[in-house]
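To the wet lab folks,

You asked to see what we're planning to order before we commit. Fair enough. Below is the target structure as tokens, and below that is the sequence we designed to fit it. If anything looks off to you, flag it before the synthesis order goes out.
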């Protein structure tokens, strides 16, 4: 069982954790680090050197824990320059460079689609896949962001099955928020509130996970699959136990 480390490297500083301390805490719980959520200004040629250095540092850190996958996010689409063809082309060129670096380190890197980013819609994901080298850069899809972004989730798995690096299983259906305050009492932006209201425990939304799983079985996939809950509707323990039951009862038989 593993975790995806987010907000690296700031999360180590925030909790004053050394690499050795993190390794100790993970070992106590029988956990591994599967990957890091990596992102940066890949659309900006002037910052490419820094992005590649940070990607290299992330993979060097992951290698200490035996990981060999890097999940790569695209830049925010709200940036003024993000809508240009030149920015998209530069981003894809940088992704190829990250993939080249990953290959040299014994890793595989892949695009993680996300709402609010340059690779949100199906046509943007397809464009990125066309403009990157399949031998260097793969696909690390998030099912909820695919669905809410307008993609056919199973269709995307099928289309890019030979490029799958890892994936997030997250259920979703667009849902109007009941309010704009989260469980910590913080006020959310309307867009964030709508997104969080649209995330569900596995099996409670609209995504065809058995269909996704049949694609994974077809290719003999044996990598990481991250069950990701942006919202734990029943509380973290109960929601994850419900997701676990869904996996065991509905998805595992597909592989048997």
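Sequence we intend to order:
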């Amino acid at each position: 069982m593993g975790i995806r480390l987010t907000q690296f490297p700031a999360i180590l500083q925030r909790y004053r954790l050394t690499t050795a301390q993190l390794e100790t805490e993970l070992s106590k719980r029988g956990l591994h680090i599967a990957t890091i959520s990596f992102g940066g200004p890949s659309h900006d040629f002037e910052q490419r050197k820094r992005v590649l250095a940070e990607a290299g540092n992330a993979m060097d850190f992951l290698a200490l824990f035996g990981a060999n996958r890097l999940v790569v996010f695209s830049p925010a689409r709200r940036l003024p320059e993000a809508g240009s063809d030149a920015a998209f082309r530069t981003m894809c060129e940088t992704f190829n460079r990250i993939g080249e670096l990953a290959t040299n380190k014994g890793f595989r890197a892949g695009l993680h689609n996300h709402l609010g980013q340059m690779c949100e819609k199906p046509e943007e994901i397809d464009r990125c896949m066309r403009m990157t080298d399949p031998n260097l850069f793969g696909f690390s899809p998030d099912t909820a962001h695919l669905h809410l972004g307008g993609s056919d989730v199973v269709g995307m798995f099928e289309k890019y099955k030979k490029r799958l690096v890892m994936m997030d299983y997250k259920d979703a259906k667009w849902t109007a928020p009941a309010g704009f305050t989260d469980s910590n009492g913080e006020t959310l932006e309307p867009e964030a509130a709508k997104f969080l209201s649209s995330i569900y425990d596995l099996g409670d939304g609209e995504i065809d996970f058995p269909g996704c799983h049949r694609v994974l079985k077809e290719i003999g996939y044996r990598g990481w699959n991250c069950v990701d809950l942006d919202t734990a509707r029943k509380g973290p323990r109960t929601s994850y136990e419900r997701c676990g039951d869904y996996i065991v009862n509905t998805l595992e038989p597909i592989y048997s």
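Structural context that might help your review: The beta strands are 2-5, 32-38, 69-73, 108-112, 137-139, 167-169, 171-172, 199-200, 225-227. The mean pLDDT is 94.

Thanks,
Computational group
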